Amino acid sequence: MTVTSGQALADALESSSPLIIRVQGSLTMPDAMNDVRSNKTVLGVGSATLDNGLNVSGARNVIIRNLTFRGWDDDAINVQGSTNVWIDHNTFDGGYDGAVDVKRESDFVTISWNRVVNHTKSMLLGHDDGHTADRGHLRVTYHHNWFDGSKERHPRVRFGDPVHVFNNYYNGADYGVASTMGAGVLVEGNYFENVTRPTAVGYADSGPGDLVQRNNVFVNSGTPESAGDVAAIPYPYTVENPNGIKASVTAGAGAGRITV
């Protein structure tokens, strides 16, 4: 189905039926955060834009692709208590809080080929230091994302192990990846440019986690931090040569780079 208004999109997202929803135009959603139920694929057509957020809560099998989120009032995408979620080829431009936050025992989430620009709080993983129910969950993969001058949380991780961060391009950040509260994060094959603290073990008031960094490129960036080890990555994958990541990610990340 194709929707061309924010209300029509909100109604489709809350349907109990499995749906492929094609989004056209610049849509104003009815709420700051709009619920997404299970078995939904949301595809932007052309330059589809949303001005508020999507709340994937207690859901399974959700795909969100090729949308531009601009000026949102809460989070652009909030994933909580959900599994099997893919967030791919979106652009996040200048909102209030998180671009993509994953928390509250969510699991098996992939965040790929997105661009975050004109923004500060990019991607939080883990609700807060006291939410210990996240242990054993929050297994999330981040790859081929373009953190384009965004300042922090790429991601900021609590509890999740393993969390896999590979082949992303970071430019102009205060910090890149932070592992805290006993998390286990593998950071490999990324390209860090003008990043003050590329990887951090512990952050702010949160205690340290484990972080393994390998085969990354650092250009005009600080010294990476690492500690401990990380659980095995549970899938086969190929890491691109990090020297080519800046070119490949800037050519391919964000909305409008795929054919829907």
TrEMBL record:
The keyword Secreted applies. One of its GO terms (cellular component) is extracellular region. It is found in: Secreted. SUPFAM superfamilies: Pectin lyase-like. GO terms for biological process: polysaccharide catabolic process. The keyword Secreted applies. GO terms for molecular function: pectate lyase activity. Residues 1-198 form the Pectate lyase domain. Gene3D superfamilies: Single-stranded right-handed beta-helix, Pectin lyase-like. Keywords: Carbohydrate metabolism, Lyase, Polysaccharide degradation, Secreted. Belongs to the polysaccharide lyase 1 family. This is Pectate lyase.
